[in-house]
Design a protein that fits this description.
The chain has nine helices and five strands, in the order αααααβββαβααβα. It is of the alpha/beta class and about 210 residues long. The chain has two domains: about 55 residues, no CATH class; about 130 residues, Ribonuclease H-like superfamily/Ribonuclease H (Nucleotidyltransferase, domain 5), CATH 3.30.420.10. Strands 3-2-1-4-5 form a five-stranded mixed sheet.
């Protein structure tokens, strides 16, 4: 598939957040979009409006290395954790799932049956399951990704916790998070979280 034009990229960034959604809109991968952004920012003749250029620069700084490029030493140290929770009935039989990928490529798939719980409870339990495993394995820097906007935004500190029933889980997650040298929480589309979703549902089916 042909790369999108620079005008299409700028238009997508202006109307879509986060970056993954812009990539989906343009029909390319996130890495391809990042490549176009970096090329645009590095090109002297590129003269986008100041606000757009500033936005491109921020995207460039936050984006991972291009495919095929050697990752920076800092990026190479970071593990990636995908988390999810499922509840059939909400509340109903529930499961937590997590998939932890270490910098060297080693992967750990985790699931835990929770009994009858709500979906939000299960989502937090997925986070706790993954954070505990990462700490057990000595991970120092971690990127946490999940498709529950509520959970990710609360753990980022951008949304307030309004359900006091989730308070113990939230407090435990924040306590575990503080034990990492560096940690990020990011909301991702559901289709990018299929492995963790599979584990949360397996936890229900197999009573893991």
């Amino acid at each position: 598939m042909a790369h999108p034009t620079l005008a299409q990229v700028v238009e997508a960034i202006a109307s879509e957040e986060p970056l993954e959604r812009a990539a989906v809109k343009l029909g390319v991968t996130r890495e391809e979009l990042v490549s176009v952004l970096r090329e645009a920012v590095a090109t002297p003749v590129f003269r986008a409006p100041a606000k757009v250029r500033e936005r491109l620069l921020r995207a460039r700084e936050a984006a991972p290395p291009d495919a095929g490029q050697e990752p920076s030493p800092r990026a190479a140290r970071r593990a990636v954790l995908y988390v999810d929770g499922a509840s059939r009935g909400n509340p109903g039989p529930a499961g937590a799932g997590a998939v932890l990928t270490l910098p060297g490529g080693e992967s750990h798939r985790l699931g835990r049956f929770l009994g009858v719980r709500t979906n939000n409870h299960a989502e937090y339990q997925g986070v706790l399951l993954g954070l505990a495993k990462a700490l057990e394995l000595g991970v120092k820097e971690l990127d946490v990704r999940g498709d529950s906007m509520l959970t990710m935004m609360q753990l980022k500190g951008e949304w307030k916790l309004r359900n006091e029933g989730l308070r113990p889980l939230y407090d435990e997650a924040r306590s575990l998070a503080r034990r990492f040298a560096a940690i990020t929480f990011r909301h991702i589309p559901r289709e990018e979280n299929q492995a963790a979703d599979e584990m949360s549902n397996r936890a229900i089916d197999e009573r893991m």
